[in-house]
């Protein structure tokens, strides 16, 4: 078996888009920062989102059955930090930017690069994490023109090759 620290150090070199995952419904409004998001299939359009099973809001995401993947722009590093900060209440986190809703009822960040409004179709428990398979109900494109990725334990802005961030 591979050493956990060796695995974590190797995974730090696999860059990922930074997102804020949100939910709302009977179990309440919650959100967290994630980079463990990827496409599964385009028919039907489906994403997967990984969330630690020990997270205080894991049960609420499952109970609500809906979530929104809000892809952050290069200027949203502080917002990513807010949604990762366990010392902040959910009200404080959500107060950091503007929100609306689409079909699922999950909070949709108005300034995101893109929003994927989803219903949780399946959940698999693997080791320390829940894997949410999310069927996309709607997509909203924002106005941003650069992205935010997490690579080698640091944030980086990603821009089109024709311009500088």
The helical percent reads: 10-25%
* Strand coverage percent: 35-45%
Shape: globular
Amino- and carboxy-terminal Cα gap = 41 Å
Number of H- or I-type helical stretches: 4
| pLDDT averaged over residues | 95
Query: Helices and strands, in N-to-C order?
Result: HEEEEEHEHHEEEEEE
Adjacency order of strands in the biggest sheet: 3-2-6-9-10-5-4
Largest sheet: 7 strands, antiparallel
Cα gyration radius (Å): 15 Å
What structural class do the secondary elements suggest?
alpha+beta
Organism: Pseudomonas piscis
Domain Flavin reductase like: 11-157
Protein name: Flavin reductase
Keywords: Oxidoreductase
General description of the model:
This protein has 165 residues and is an alpha+beta fold. Helix content is 17%, strand content 45%. The chain has four helices and twelve strands, in the order H-E-E-E-E-E-H-E-H-H-E-E-E-E-E-E. It has helices spanning 4-11, 58-64, 77-84, 90-94; strands at 16-17, 19-23, 30-34, 37-42, 45-52, 66-71, 99-101, 107-109, 114-126, 129-141, 147-151, 154-158. The strands form three sheets. A seven-stranded antiparallel β-sheet has the order 3-2-6-9-10-5-4. It has a three-stranded antiparallel β-sheet with strand order 1-11-12, with no helix packed on it. Strand 2 and strand 3 form a beta hairpin. The N and C termini lie far apart (41 Å). Pfam families: Flavin_Reduct. This is Flavin reductase.
